Amino acid sequence: MTAIALEPKLTDSLLEKTCDKLNQSKISEDRQFVTALGRGLALLAAFEHHETLSHQELCQMSGLPKATVTRLIYTLTMLGFLRTTMQGQYQLGSSAVRLSAIAWSRYDVVALAEPLLRQFAMENEVSVNLATEIEGEMRYLACYRSPTRLSINLQVGSAVPIDKTAIGRAFYATSLPNRQKIIDNHLQEQLYEAEYQQAQNLLNDAQNYYKKHGYTLSDGEFSPDILAVAVGVFDVATGQYEYSLNASVPRANWDSEEYAATIVPKLQALAERIGRGD
């Protein structure tokens, strides 16, 4: 079996490595190697550089017969590792996203950030969280709660709306246009037309607000008793904003402008440290 790459530049890709292992196991007659599992993982690996893929593209990239790909897609979809888009293509599903969230929580950037977030939460008496966008939602990678109890208890792997939260708005505001377009497509698939238009308005307003003030704000919009500000985290390793960072408190304890003036400069400094890998 030979993998056929849609893009020649994608050498030494995860798909290529997976297919090589499949070939090696066949040549060596490795009886411990589960070929069916390997083939299923090869299909998942095809999404390393692609947001969506068609049935035909999966056949071409994996080099597997059409009937085999059909059965694998069905199984992976039933288990939640793939999902069908409105256009009839395929993309990674919720089960794959959950595994990704666990992997992200162990990622070097997160490991570096955790002690910094813990110290920040204790010194400033806020809840502070690091997140990234997955499938049109913000997925929490690291969380440290304030000594002051909040109504919502979010943990690593929790997902929150991108348009109604400060952390989601900051991520969108600092993302490149192509990433914003992907987010818009996810939201359009997930929301009714009126909800999608409202989300777009909120995100556009947040982007303008971030350009002017350097942070985003959610004042009771996600949860009535939570006030949160957020900033983007620029990853020097990739040269892009890959994460966002928020700090939240009970609304009853703070005026929003006073809170932002107090905590945003500290949050920006924390974001810079995380992004630089200090």
Supply the key terms.
278 residues, alpha+beta, Arc Repressor Mutant, subunit A, Beta-Lactamase, 2 domains, six-stranded antiparallel β-sheet, 10 helices, elongated
Describe the overall structure:
It contains ten helices and eight strands. The N terminus is likely disordered. The chain has a six-stranded antiparallel beta sheet, sandwiched between helices. A two-stranded antiparallel sheet has the order 1-2. It is of the alpha+beta class. Helix 1 packs antiparallel against helix 2, helix 3 crosses helix 4 and helix 6 packs antiparallel against helix 10. It folds into two domains: 79 residues, Winged helix-like DNA-binding domain superfamily/Winged helix DNA-binding domain (Arc Repressor Mutant, subunit A, Orthogonal Bundle), CATH 1.10.10; 179 residues, Beta-Lactamase. It is 51% helix and 18% strand.
